[in-house]
Amino acid sequence: MKFENRKKVLLLGQNVDFLNHAKNMIEDDNETIDMIIVSDVNEGLNKLTNDQYYAVISDYDLGEKECLDFLKEVRDERGIRIPFILLMDDGKDEDMLKALRLNANRVFYKKKNLLLSCKILKEILEQEILNYEIKKELEHNRKNMSGGLIL
Fold it and tell me: What is the pLDDT of residue 151?
């Protein structure tokens, strides 16, 4: 199974400065990733439904809709299994646990140092996309095995 050369990542949130900084840094350091910024939850859901994305990075504070509701809709109601990274400025451990129970792949607390936060986020994103690609490749190989032992 071949994957596209360019990998779209949905970046959802209200903090435009952080989102633009993250977009620019990640795209500059990794020419295979296209960061698509949206600030509206419904627009984000439409994009996920209508196009292929490799990951979602969502800020916890989404304004009109709580991030955990967005995560639940992505996972449970729409069945989308791409990596989901939740960004938090600071927060309660209960919120982090709820996100992990709703199958967020990672919860990342943004640092006061914007440059450091973006570098760490880039590394996390690249790891999650690689894990996702490996998982998809394994699933594809299992489905296409004819007469072989499937573990």
Answer: 52
- HSE (CB half, 13 Å, CA atoms) of 145? 10
Domain of 38 in residue numbering reads as: 7-144
Segment 12-67, tens digit of pLDDT: 998 888 899 999 999 999 989 999 999 989 999 999 999 999 999 999 988 767 88
- Domain with residue 32: its CATH number is 3.40.50.2300
Geometric angle at alpha carbon 5, from 34 and 141, rounded to 5°: 120
Q: How many domains does the chain have?
A: 1
Instruction: Confirm whether pTM is higher than 0.85.
Output: yes
- Any domain includes 1: no
Determine contact, residues 25/122, Cβ cutoff 8 Å. yes
Give the three-state DSSP class for 4: coil
Amino acid sitting at position 114 = L
List strand residue ranges (DSSP E) for the chain, in order.
7-12, 33-38, 55-59, 84-88, 106-109
